[in-house]
Every structure is written in structure tokens, then in C-alpha cells.
């Protein structure tokens, strides 16, 4: 006859179960930490524009430098047409915003407005825009306007 004081065993080992649970928890925490570290490092990185976007940006900037010294009606027409082209074809909106600012400055320079940028403003914008084209191999060059 079986002894009534013995408890049946289920084959489970509580120590092993805790060890497995601890390993699963540690793996989850490590994965979250790695994801958080990746996000933290990547959060301040600039978007990277395609070669096509950067080449379009350089073409617009080159045209803008010439437009800034030309007649106002031609500058206004160019500004409208170029802005429409940029919005329709440029995929990187962050680079597009920088180029849009330069386009506007070219128009204001042609109008001989008081809102024309300084050479430092153009250099600062150039550095910001270049950051978006760092991986494309295209080096944007923004000449000062009205000089």
C-alpha cells in the first residue's frame, strides 16, 4: 500500500523554472535596452536624401543664384515653377524645406527686399542642407545671394 504522506511529483523543478523565467526576462530587458540605445543614437540624425533629390537641389540652387540678380517677373515665374517641381519630385521633405528657403531668399534678393540673407545665413543653410546629402555623394554648394 502507498504511503499517504508522500506527495506525488509532477516532474517540475521550481529552481529551473525560475532560472528559465529569469533568462527570458533578462533577454527581454536586453532587447529593450538595445532598441532604446538605437533610437537614442538615431533620433538626432538627419534624413538622407537620394542622389536624385540632391542633384535636383543643386540644380535649383545654381539657378537661384542667377535668378537673384535678374528681373523680378522672371524670378517670380521661376520661383513658382521651381517650387512646383520640387514639391512634385523631391522625396526628402527636410532637404526640400532647406532648398525652399534658398528659393525664397533668391526671390527676395531679386526684389531687393530687406529680407535678403546674409552670407552667414547662406553658409548655415548650406551646412544644414549638406547634412541631408552626406550619403548621396553630392556636395551641395550654395553661393551667397546678392553679393
Descriptive notes:
- There is one protein chain.
- The chain is an all-alpha fold and 147 residues long.
- It has helices at 14-42, 51-67, 72-89, 93-110, 119-132.
- α2 (51-67) runs antiparallel to α3, α2 (51-67) packs parallel to α4 (93-110) and α3 packs antiparallel against α4 (93-110).
- The chain is rod-shaped, with a radius of gyration of 30 Å.
- The model has no long low-confidence stretch (mean pLDDT 86).
Largest sheet: none
Which shape, going by the Cα principal axes? rod-shaped
Low-confidence sequence ranges: none
Q: N-to-C SSE series? A: HHHHH
Tally of helical segments: 5
Kindly state the percentage of residues in helix.
55-70%
Number of strands: 0
> What is the terminal separation in angstroms?
108 Å
- Could you tell me the radius of gyration in angstroms? 30 Å
Q: Taking all residues together, what is the mean pLDDT?
A: 86
The fraction of residues assigned to DSSP E strands is under 5%
Please state the structural category. mainly alpha
Task: Based on the model shown, name its key terms.
147 residues; mainly alpha; 5 helices
Topology:
Layout lengths: L13 H29 L8 H17 L4 H18 L3 H18 L8 H14 L15
Helix pairs in contact: 2-3, 2-4, 3-4, 4-5
Describe this structure in a few short sentences.
This protein has 147 residues and is mostly helical.
Amino acid at each position: 500500500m502507498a504511503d499517504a504522506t508522500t506527495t506525488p511529483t509532477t516532474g517540475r523543478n521550481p529552481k529551473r523554472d525560475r532560472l528559465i523565467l529569469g533568462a527570458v526576462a533578462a533577454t527581454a530587458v536586453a532587447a529593450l535596452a538595445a532598441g532604446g540605445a538605437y533610437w537614442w543614437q538615431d533620433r538626432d540624425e538627419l534624413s538622407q536624401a537620394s542622389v536624385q533629390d540632391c542633384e535636383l537641389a543643386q540644380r535649383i540652387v545654381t539657378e537661384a543664384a542667377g535668378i537673384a540678380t535678374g528681373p523680378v517677373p522672371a524670378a517670380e515665374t521661376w520661383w513658382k515653377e521651381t517650387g512646383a517641381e520640387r514639391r512634385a519630385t523631391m522625396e526628402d521633405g527636410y532637404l526640400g524645406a532647406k532648398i525652399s528657403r534658398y528659393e525664397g531668399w533668391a526671390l527676395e534678393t531679386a526684389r531687393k527686399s530687406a529680407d535678403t540673407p546674409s552670407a552667414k545665413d547662406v553658409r548655415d543653410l548650406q551646412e544644414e542642407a549638406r547634412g541631408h546629402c552626406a550619403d548621396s555623394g553630392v556636395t551641395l554648394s550654395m553661393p551667397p545671394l546678392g553679393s
